Amino acid sequence: MNVPTLVDHGAETHLSFCRVCHAACPIEVDVVAGEVVAVRGVKDDPLFEGYTCIKGRQLPDQMRHPDRLVRHQRRRPDGSFEPVDARTALDEIAAALRRIIDEHGPRAVATYTGTGAYQNSTTIPVTRAFHKAIRSRSLYTSLTIDQPAKATAMFRMGMWEGGLQDFRTADVLLAIGYNPLVSSFGPSSGLQGTNPFVELRRARERGLKLIVIDPRRTELASFADIHLQARPGEDAAILAGMLRVILTEDRHDAPFCDTWVEDLDGLRAAVEPFTPEVVATRADIPADDLVAAARMFAAASRGTSGTGTGPSMAPHSSLTEHLSLCLNVVCGRVNRPGDIIHSGFFLSPETPKRAQVAPPMRPTGAAARFRGLHGYHGEMPTTTLAEEILEPGDGQIRALVVSGGNPAVAWPDQAQTLAALDDLELLVVVDHRMTPTAERAHYVIAPTLSLERPDVPHLMDRWFPMPYTNYTDAVVPRRGDVLAEWELFWEIAERLEVELELPGGTLPRGVRPDPGDVIDLAYGDARMPVSEMRANRRVIHEERALRVTEAEGDAEDRARFLVAYDEIVAELGVVATERTSAERLSGFDPEQFPFRLTSRRLKAVLNSLGPELPNLARKGTTNKAYMNPLDCAELGLDDGSLVEISSPHATIVGVCEPAGDIRRGVISMAHSWGTGSLTDERVRAVGTPTNRLVTTKDGFDAVTGQAIQSAIPVAVRRVTDDESRG
Ligand code: SF4
Predict the structure, then answer these.
(1) Residue 331 and residue 214 share a domain
(2) How much is the pTM?
(3) How far is the CA of 183 from the centre of ligand 1 (A)?
(4) Structural domains counted in the chain
(5) Closest ligand 1 atom to the C-alpha of 27?
(6) Which in 8, 38, 494, 530 has the greatest CB count within 10 A?
(7) Are 316 and 169 members of one domain?
(8) Strands (E), 57-199
């Protein structure tokens, strides 16, 4: 149990875990008179060994911030806000939703769950239950604008039930555009944010070879044996080139491919145009380095390849993910019978982990009204949501509940997003501060903050590199009138007289459930009951590790990987004829848009969360435009110069910082900064939203709808402060 410990200075110390990002670092929380006064890592934690990052250590400031909302807000007709008690706000919201459902049908009611609410273990299950209860399919999350191909590519190719080989046992790691030393995030088989510097050092000591593809010499790339500092957006060509080297030199795992791959010759033919010389020219990397990287990856006995945010938001994102998976498949980088799966998957239902392929499938859900896109895994694509709001007709969305997200600066195409938010009949935003999105809401619901609620580490449960469990109680009482996200939906469901069905049973009606009980019900189909997790905090369960079992069924009837299905071959054909991936945008002019803007993470910020906290604001109040010093010199840009950045779609103004770790021709900027205005007069104080540059309607990924949110073709010029104000 989480029994408070009295320490010398009179504080009680509680054990919990951080939920600023998904990494779930265990923390000791000092509390004095109900106030969180200090947070630090837990040194004796068997997995994290005391690791935390600067963001998590600011939790006391987040809890006590003078601008934190502890009362709900209602917009007045003049646009200002007034406090409103929970009962009144909920009554009015429920009445508006009932009217909208009656007039337009249930599909007119949508929800969007952003990164902030994703860390809350009950938000997604209860939101899904709410949609089921009111029969609305209009469920959207940040997942469909942030690496959605990870949720589709492996299903389309066929998924190895026993999972991919993982970082902890790998002799080689191929990291394509990710940097867990800053983001605390890697693909499921890659380096994770659980003490990443120490994990990397240990892996290097045991002989791990590291290959990084990134236009920036990132913290991770600085440790690499081979760093392909490529032009952004050319990852598909690079991976196709690596596959070509491996297949033409017969460095693949032939026995594995003979048994488990349906169409290897199709892949061999499709990557044939990607010779080292062609790829070298296209990506501006040494051909020899490409060949060496392919040979290094294939030579190891165990290893893994995975992608991160940059390539997953760049053109050809589904193809890039597919080719990364192909590298794993052709080199046989899957767990074999007897291998231990890194994570315990304790919060997931028990499923077979056999050494065989789950049949390829198309995770196709309901049809969106635009561009032939579909939902998948019960979600609709967020890149269509603004149009679903703006475009009249059957299925038009009229009400939106945003939990822990900031669409005004985060969704692709800012102008379209702002128009959509303003067009809604009802916008409810659940957030602890008045974000640019909250400022446009009809109601702002003040939520509990992480240390005021119990949780399980539901995201990391699949990514922990060991079979590790944790649980936290609330460590401080709630303030003011705040509600947990699940309570908002439960309260509305009560008023709409519908029931919320969770995997473990229906949430009780009439009597508010205990928050811990909601977690039990939300994960009622888990392989480890939540009650057992509650009793096993910060524990590695070697004895409960999942072990891969032998394949079942007749060999000739077993499913095989599809590595070269028609759409993949066709898209590789397109890539082979492009000069640059920016040609995905119709009418692209390489002379006019010679630079590429790439997304990046910052240590002190998670999307739009961070700059409001004093110790993080000291690290910077704007999302700087990092550029190579030679480019800066050519353009007459100094440190702090304002730079106008124009895509074929729109313009932003950024604050330049020369950075020698960026390759030439690249601008590296964090996303989700700025305000809900379409101009950047206050860029030095608040930053600018790079997604203003993005269009949802051109160059998007045909499977997921992912817009080109990284490797965006742009033009750059110096402007003065006066010019930037228009
Ligand atoms: S890495 Fe994420 S979970 Fe860990 S302390 Fe930082 S913000 Fe919190």
Answers:
(1) yes
(2) 0.96
(3) 9
(4) 3
(5) 5
(6) 530
(7) yes
(8) 72-75, 81-84, 109-113, 139-141, 159-160, 172-176
